[in-house]
Amino acid sequence: MKLSEVVHTLQAEVLCGEEWLDCEIDTICGADLMSDVLAFATGRTILLTGLTNIQVVRTAFLSDLVGIVFIRGKKPGADIIAMAAEKGIPLMATAYPMYEACGRLYFRQTQEPKRCGDQVERQSKNFARV
After folding, report:
1. 22 FRET partner, CA 20 to 30 A, in 76, 87, 91, 130?
2. Both ends of the chain: CA-CA distance in Å?
3. Among positive and negative, which fits the CA dihedral 9, 106, 118, 45?
4. pTM for this model (two decimals)
5. Is residue 113 scored above 80 in pLDDT?
6. Domain 3-129 carries which CATH code?
7. Rounded to whole angstroms, what are the CA distances from 112 to 22, 105, 107?
8. Where are the domains of the chain?
9. Which one-letter DSSP state was computed for residue 10?
10. 93: Cβ–Cβ under 8 A, 6 or more apart, which residues?
11. Residue 125 pLDDT > 50, yes or no?
12. Which residues lie closer than 8 Å to 56 by C-beta, 6 or more apart?
């Protein structure tokens, strides 16, 4: 899934980083504890959070996150938006609460067409169980 699809799915407003909306993501992390993000976020991940402080951007930078989505209509201050733009981290804001935002993205991601290799692998696992 691309960041642009996240924006569309969550009807999100892009606060900064429109030039990075073509970035691919593999994982979605919904958390308000930045220690959880540091411990569990891997690969091309976006963070959904209700926190709007500077630590969110710092954590995203340290964890190599692809972007941050602020939930429940929250928006960070101008200083945080400026820091994210400087670090190359796209920021988005959605009115959806955490549960619904994660659910919508999960549904969207599971509805994407799979590559041929994914289908073959899935079929071979099913045959192994018979």
Report:
1. 76
2. 33
3. positive
4. 0.83
5. no
6. 3.40.1390.20
7. 16, 11, 9
8. 3-129
9. T
10. 12, 13, 15, 69, 70, 73, 74, 75
11. no
12. 34, 47, 49, 68, 76, 80
Chain centre distance of CA 14: 13
Axis-axis angle for helices 78-87, 54-62 (nearest 10): 10
Strand, helix or coil for residue 88: coil
Q: What Cα–Cα distance (Å) separates residue 125 from each residue in 13, 32, 90, 110, 111?
A: 41, 36, 38, 18, 20
Q: How many CB atoms lie within 10 A of CB 59?
A: 23
Specify the pairing of strand 13-16 against strand 91-93. Answer: antiparallel
Please, are residues 104 and 10 in contact by the beta-carbon 8 Å criterion? yes
Position 123 pLDDT exceeds 60: no
What are 1-48's pLDDT values in tens digits? 999 999 999 999 999 999 999 999 999 999 999 999 999 888 899 999
Share of the chain above pLDDT 70, in %: 85
Q: How far apart are CA 129 and CA 60, in angstroms?
A: 40
- The string of pLDDT tens digits covering residues 36-46 is 999 988 889 99
